[in-house]
Design a protein that fits this description.
Low-confidence stretches: none
Distance between the termini: 95 Å
Strand content: 5-15%
Radius of gyration: 32 Å
Number of strands: 5
Structural class: alpha/beta
Strand order of the largest sheet: 1-2-3-4-5
Mean pLDDT: 86
Helix content: over 70%
């Protein structure tokens, strides 16, 4: 049986490109592509064929090294780690990528069946091949999916981080003076970023004054008010004076109702008044 397994493994290695080509042609035959999509696909098609052949070769090698199952699993895991992320970056959906599985199973087994029949191999050999290849293909699917999902989650986190950073836009107006227009809701995550990013930008821009406009903030509750006060206090420690603008009447009522003393803050009605205040401060 050992010789038969090695024989079949070597056969798969020898035919890996032929099997990959048949898998690829059958798999892509039912995929509708526009002319532009087809042209773009042709550019990466050689690489996809190479990836397919590499996976098929792993099954052949697993039959040759059938006593070392862990080596085969590790090889599949390595292949999946590299190509799961690649297919995600390429824009392929996980559902579409996993449709390849049945094609690999069908054509690898077709090649094995033809060779086993031709060489009159024993049933024990066939059952052993099943015990090696089927679980290995399942593991390839599992690790490929895991890597794909991890790449997807990483992309979501990076996108969310980028959006959050854009939600704290410190805009320089003139040397030493910047404005921070806050828009939308401020949740706990954005509040934490508000403090970190404001301080970073204030230091980077060498600000002496920062106008914080909250006219676009939808709701000011205890958490939001506390975070704004924290930002203002922390800015003062690094020599940056903060001026609050855009407090709507209903927001002012809410802040007072929450027990915050506006007299401790520099508050102006709008950006123009804030700039006048800064000019007065600069002349003293």
């Amino acid at each position: 049986m050992e010789n038969e397994l090695q024989y079949l493994g070597e056969m798969i290695l020898k035919k890996k490109h032929d099997i990959a080509k048949v898998v690829h042609e059958d798999r892509m035959s039912g995929v509708p592509l526009t002319q532009t999509e087809n042209e773009d696909f042709r550019k990466i098609e050689p690489l996809i064929l190479k990836v397919r052949a590499e996976l098929i070769a792993l099954f052949g090698q697993a039959l040759i090294d059938y006593k070392d199952r862990e080596k085969a699993v590790e090889s599949v895991r390595s292949w999946a780690a590299e190509n799961g992320e690649y297919f995600f970056n390429m824009g392929a959906s996980l559902n579409e990528a996993l449709k390849d599985t049945s094609f690999y199973r069908e054509y690898i087994w077709k090649s094995i069946k033809e060779e086993a029949t031709k060489e009159n191999m024993s049933a024990d050999t066939v059952f052993e091949v099943i015990a090696i290849i089927d679980p290995l293909l399942d593991k390839a699917v599992y690790h490929f999916s895991l890597t794909y999902v991890e790449a997807f989650q990483k992309s979501l986190e990076n996108t969310r981080a980028a959006i959050l950073e854009l939600s704290v836009p410190v805009v320089p107006l003139q040397p030493g003076v910047g404005v921070l227009p806050l828009i939308g809701n401020i949740d706990a995550e954005r509040a934490n970023l508000l403090l970190e990013e404001t301080l970073r930008q204030a230091e980077k821009l060498r600000l002496t004054h920062l106008i914080i406009d909250i006219s676009g903030v939808l709701t000011v509750d205890t958490m939001v008010a506390n975070e704004l006060l924290k930002v203002i206090s922390t800015l003062s420690l690094i020599g940056v004076e903060a001026i609050i603008t855009g407090i709507r009447p209903e927001v002012a009522q809410t802040i007072v109702a929450l027990g915050f003393n506006l007299k401790e803050l520099t508050v102006k009605g709008n950006l123009h008044q804030a700039l006048n205040e800064i000019n007065l401060l600069n002349t003293n």
